[in-house]
Amino acid sequence: MRKLDHCNIVRLRYFFYSSGDKKDEVYLNLVLDYVPETVYRVARHYSRAKQTLPMVYVKLYMYQLFRSLAYIHSAKQLVRGEPNVSYICSRYYRAPELIFGATDYTSSIDVWSAGCVLAELLLGQPIFPGDSGVDQLVEIIKVLGTPTREQIREMNPNYTEFKFPQIKAHPWTKVFPAAYPPEAIALCSRCWSTPQGPPHPSRGLRTLLL
User: pTM of this prediction?
Assistant: First the structure.
């Protein structure tokens, strides 16, 4: 993180370790630049007011997110690890190949997460709110349908013989209200394609939405 220097990435100033109350309990403490506002707080404000987030905000936040991901990926890094904020459960944004236990994956896992963020900004709530790893996969299948054997092989070949319930993909018109721009829904769909399919973040910047 200390090597990342980009206007859309919060700068890491310093880090240190501290001991916890239990034996062998160690905490990693990060000292970051102060950011007075967060996307989560802005989105929650509109959600509590039962209003949709203005599309100009959605475009602005997603533009910054894809810019930062493009920079990070150009540095040959991935966004991994548990978030250090309590209000975000990384499970909601986790790509299915990670749920399948894949150890060999690409930058597509970050693009998947970006699609989840976009959907949440549009809907005002997480689109895949699983309570566990298995439940998370169920939530994904309920929207996108049962993955094909080839898709499962791409994610983790150890599960190709596993029998999944056959569920058809939910129509996008029933997932997102008709008022939302079709280009926003198209970008979500592109982010959630197979592990080999999601666009590079720089291509996300060139979509009709942004």
Answer: 0.84
Q: Can you give the three-state secondary structure of the chain, one letter per residue?
A: CCCCCCCCCCCEEEEEEEECCCCCCEEEEEEECCCCCCHHHHHHHHHHCCCCCCHHHHHHHHHHHHHHHHHHHHCCCCCCCCCCCCCCCHHHHCCHHHHCCCCCCCCHHHHHHHHHHHHHHHHCCCCCCCCCHHHHHHHHHHHHCCCCHHHHHHHCHHHCCCCCCCCCCCCHHHHCCCCCCHHHHHHHHHHCCCCCCCCCHHHHCCCCCC
Query: Which pLDDT does position 84 carry in this prediction?
Result: 44
Q: Which domains can be identified in the chain, with CATH numbers?
A: 37-204 (1.10.510.10)
